[in-house]
Design goal:
650 residues; alpha+beta; 5-stranded antiparallel sheet; 15% strand; 58% helix; single chain
């Protein structure tokens, strides 16, 4: 694997060298052939071929920019002559204003052809007061203006609204009426002469009263239109030249920026690739990214939990690589930002930090977070986004290794649960090779969810155990987890239920048992946990976690050792302690009270005391056990505990 990766990386570097030296296309294309001759795998060959195609496109783009630069170089020589000419809008406003002034009309306006739409549109007006008129568009042959544009001849109408020579339309007539125009003269704006002339628009002068335009006025407007056409063409040429120059300058800036970004990207790629090839882990990649971007970086899993603490640029302070902590609200905010980043396919700035989703396809592996760089510009932002790809590769590698280990650990778990007595020594030895000492105390958790989300639960269990040195397996429709003993089984079950429910997105019920050491004890703990899980589901406690000892008298029935003493002490402990300390008879009074069916009269006769004494003792019992001591459920547990206590005394 390392040799192929190195070979592919060297071929990619060679492509960059060929691009930098403007090598012929044949040399670039030969790189793919070299990869095939070198015995690279199909995936590597496909990657090199894709890189070759990209390099050829980049080469073509660069050559096109160079040709464009050579073609537009001549435009710089004429820039001085054109600089004195105003922009096109200023030229058009001047022409229309002059036409109105010279002909003495109420208004003047100019339309230009829209070749893409195949019509003419109102470009500039002078003296117009109607918004409807100012936004008119005329098809060829429609109205006076459309006829001028179609025939390239001047037309005049003393009263347009009654003139039948023109094709009237509702929109044009409405605009003319809204402006109040009556007499209209229109002449074409022609470029060239004779049959080769091209109409680029029309110039109009119009009055709001009937008027006959003289031949001299028509000739004057035509002469003005001829000059206007030349001015428009010159202004357009100048505008085109300026746009071309701006485009060229922008292209040059883009090329320079692209070149700098490519160089930095190559350096960053080399650094990160070298780090990965040397076996670097996620914290080291985070440290490298922090150094490249001069910021602080953290890496989080898909649930927002940190995989590294804050990693700083080595020149700015400490560079820790341990796992940090994060609040639940902050984790939720990071998950939401990562989902935004996945949807946008870019890093997003949220909560004063940049967040980039770490993806494998559309699978969200986690997030890369950059702190302290609100001004992250384009190249640095792209570098940050590319770094998430390297992080994704490492997380995928870690997950693949973990999944492989989990499969092996799962086989061990299956044998532990189904045949612990077949070869206990062999099971312990297999566990030791996987880093699990089965002779040390462990907790056994059994997690179950609805059938619809069972596959999600299996994946969530793998993620929950990731990096913990534990083992897990799917067995009898549930996920079984073997954890090192560092907390009580009930506490561990509740913690697992909370996190698995969050990962699965549906209630997950978890039962715990243990601690247990050795294959046989672990198998017994599994049996107890299964019974406890069944009780939790029967009791309707879905989405919670508990162990048998936390289920009251049910725990006594379900537990393997039937720990009667613990149940009696947990139920009657306050009364036993009070009696022992003060020499009272609260336990005896409670037993008599239940034995007499809750009758105070019969209880006082049984105890040979006054009824007020019984009432006072029951009040003390309520103060010690709580106001619900006589509820049916608690009363049942109290009576069972009293009976067991009496049996112990006997």
């Amino acid at each position: 694997m390392p040799d192929k990766t190195t070979s592919t990386a060297s071929l990619l570097r060679r492509l960059l060298d060929l691009l930098a030296s403007d090598a012929p296309a044949e040399d670039i294309g030969a790189v793919a052939a070299e990869a095939r001759r070198g015995g690279a795998g199909p995936r590597d060959i496909a990657e090199v071929e894709q890189a070759v195609a990209t390099a050829l496109r980049v080469r073509g783009t660069l050559r096109q920019h160079r040709r464009r630069e050579a073609e537009l170089a001549a435009l710089f020589d004429t820039a001085g002559d054109l600089a004195a000419l105003r922009d096109l809008d200023a030229v058009l406003r001047s022409i229309v204003r002059r036409a109105r002034m010279l002909l003495g009309t109420d208004t003047a306006y100019l339309t230009l052809s829209d070749e893409a739409a195949g019509d003419t549109y109102m470009r500039v007006t002078d003296g117009s007061v109607s918004e409807l008129f100012q936004n008119l568009r005329l098809q060829l042959g429609e109205g006076l203006g459309g006829l001028v544009a179609q025939t390239a001849r001047p037309y005049a109408s003393p009263d347009y609204r009654t003139d039948e020579r023109f094709h009237h339309t509702g929109s044009i007539d409405a605009g003319v009426l809204d402006e109040g125009l009556v007499a209209i003269l229109g002449v074409p704006l022609l470029l060239g002469s004779g049959s080769g002339g091209k109409v680029i628009g029309a110039l109009f002068a119009a009055d709001r009263a009937p008027r006959t335009f003289s031949p001299e006025e028509v000739a004057l407007l035509c002469s003005l239109a001829d000059h206007a056409a030349i001015a428009i063409d010159t202004a357009k040429a100048m505008a085109d030249a300026r746009a071309a120059l701006a485009e060229l300058a922008e292209a040059n800036a883009v090329i320079r920026e692209h070149s700098a970004a490519m160089q930095r990207a190559q350096e960053s790629h080399d650094r990160l690739t070298d780090l990965v090839l040397r076996g670097g882990d996620v914290p080291e990649v985070a440290a490298a990214v922090a150094g490249l971007l001069e910021g602080e970086v953290t890496v989080h899993d898909s649930a927002g939990r940190p995989l590294t603490s804050i990693v700083r640029d080595s020149g700015r302070g400490p560079n820790p690589t341990g796992q940090g902590s994060i609040t639940g609200a902050d984790a939720d905010a990071l998950v939401a930002a990562a989902e935004e980043s996945r949807a946008a396919a870019h890093a997003v700035f949220r909560g004063g930090r940049w967040v980039c989703a770490v993806l494998a396809g559309q699978d969200l592996l986690g997030s890369l977070v950059l702190h302290g760089r609100p001004d992250l510009d384009g190249p640095d932002r792209r570098l940050f986004e590319r770094s998430s790809v390297v992080t994704a590769l490492l997380l995928l590698l870690r997950r693949s290794v973990a999944e492989t280990e989990n499969r092996v650990r799962g086989d061990l778990m299956t044998d532990l649960l189904t045949a612990p007595d077949r070869d206990p020594v062999g099971l312990v030895d297999r566990g030791r090779r996987l880093g699990i000492d089965l002779n040390r105390p462990h907790l056994l958790l059994v997690a179950q969810a609805d059938a619809a989300v069972r596959e999600r639960l299996a994946a969530a269990a793998v993620q929950y155990l990731f990096g913990s040195g534990s083992a897990g397996a799917e067995h009898a429709g549930a996920s079984v987890l073997l954890l090192p003993y560092d907390a009580g089984p009930g506490q561990a079950a509740r913690a697992a239920a909370g996190q698995l429910t969050q990962l699965v997105g549906a209630p997950v019920t978890v039962a715990g048992a243990g601690p247990a050491a050795g294959p046989g004890a672990i198998a017994d703990a599994y049996t107890e946990a299964v019974r406890c899980l069944r009780a939790l589901r029967v009791l309707g406690r879905h989405g919670t976690g508990a162990c048998a000892s936390e289920l009251g008298f049910l725990g006594v029935l379900l537990g393997k050792d039937h720990d009667v003493d613990s149940f009696v002490n947990a139920t009657l402990g306050p009364l036993l302690e009070y009696d022992a300390r003060r020499g009272t008879q609260l336990v005896g009074t409670l037993n008599a009270y239940f034995g007499c069916g809750g009758s105070l009269t019969r209880a006082k006769e049984e105890l040979h005391v006054h009824v007020n004494t019984v009432v006072q003792r029951l009040d003390r019992i309520q103060a010690l056990l709580g106001p619900d001591w006589s509820s049916p459920e608690q009363a049942l547990e109290l009576q069972l505990a009293l009976r067991l206590h009496l049996l112990q005394g006997a």
